[in-house]
Structure to design on (319 residues):
């Protein structure tokens, strides 16, 4: 019997057993989701509307916000709906779509963070060549490569994972569909094929991480040689938020997928999954806007424009 015909749905991990805690989870995650939508939406709108922000750095940040919107929308709404309706079920097709979306967006985001590290390296260490190395066409090509690499990897991992025969039930110890949890249901050595792909992906991710680290070593060496304190402050304000985002994303994902089985537990897996799937899309806008005066000013302009438009609406109606 094929894998598709033997399982028609999966059961996701419930956050709580009592109805009161389920509703608490519903309101908490709904609040986080709406906050992430609002914050990332403001960044996208501010960058798109303010021509002063039409630079490579903000172009990549706009793409990052789009990926954050997609990644949190792939996992949180289903979990919120399950808590509201007191169910754990997700269809087979829905699980496959969720897994594909999460892999696609996560790997695309990681690739984009690598590109953003290169952007900061060129801006600070080779400023005279910045316009040549990061022209508009080059930026579009690099962003497209990040999205494309995530898509191809997602196709490969999703197709391979859902071709594995499953015979250990249909309950997943996670609140969304995740490769390690699905592999636990495997009843043959076929899971080793996907495990091998994960190892290859891990080495590629390690290569990107080494590139990011080396880029920032060169960046900080160059920043420390800047004689002006104001110049050093501006350089750090551009680099530290990106480094914080990379660190949060990489450490939580690596720990979730490479931690020893001896320290694995449903509660720990749940906490780590929240840290790498829910927290980054919600806090990335805050991290990037906290030390960036240009972006904060653009967001304020978007908000004030919205309120001014609402204030002027009744006057136009009277006219």
């Amino acid at each position: 019997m094929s894998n598709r015909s033997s399982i028609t749905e999966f059961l996701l991990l419930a956050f709580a057993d009592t109805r009161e805690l389920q509703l608490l989870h519903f309101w908490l995650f709904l609040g986080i989701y709406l906050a992430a939508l609002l914050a990332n939406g403001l960044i996208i709108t501010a960058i798109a509307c303010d021509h002063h922000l039409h630079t490579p750095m903000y172009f990549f940040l706009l793409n990052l916000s789009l990926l954050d919107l997609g990644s949190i929308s792939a996992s949180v709404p289903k979990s919120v709906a399950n808590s509201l309706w007191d169910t754990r079920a997700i269809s087979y097709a829905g699980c496959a779509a969720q897994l594909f979306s999460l892999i696609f967006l996560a790997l695309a985001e990681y690739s984009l963070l690598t590109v953003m590290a290169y952007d900061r390296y060129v801006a600070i260490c080779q400023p005279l060549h910045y316009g040549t190395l990061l022209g508009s066409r080059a930026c579009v090509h690099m962003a497209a490569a990040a999205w494309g690499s995530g898509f191809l990897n997602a196709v490969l991992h999703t197709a391979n994972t859902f071709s594995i025969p499953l015979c250990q039930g249909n309950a997943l110890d996670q609140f969304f569909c995740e490769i390690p949890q699905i592999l636990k249901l495997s009843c043959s050595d076929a899971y080793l094929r996907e495990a091998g792909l994960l190892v290859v992906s891990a080495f590629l991710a390690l290569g990107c991480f080494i590139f990011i680290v080396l880029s920032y070593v060169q960046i900080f060496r160059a920043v420390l040689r800047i004689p002006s304190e104001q110049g050093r402050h501006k350089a750090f304000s551009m680099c530290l938020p990106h480094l914080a985002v990379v660190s949060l994303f990489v450490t939580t994902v690596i720990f979730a997928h490479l931690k020893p089985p001896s320290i694995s537990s449903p509660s720990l897996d749940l906490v780590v999954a929240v840290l790498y799937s829910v927290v980054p899309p919600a806090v990335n806008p805050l991290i990037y806007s906290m030390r960036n005066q240009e972006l904060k000013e653009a967001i304020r302009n978007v908000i004030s424009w919205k309120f001014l438009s609402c204030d002027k609406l009744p006057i136009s109606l009277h006219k």
Notes: The first strand starts at residue 9 and ends at 11. The first helix runs from residue 3 to 6. The chain has twelve helices and two strands. The beta strands are 9-11, 89-91.
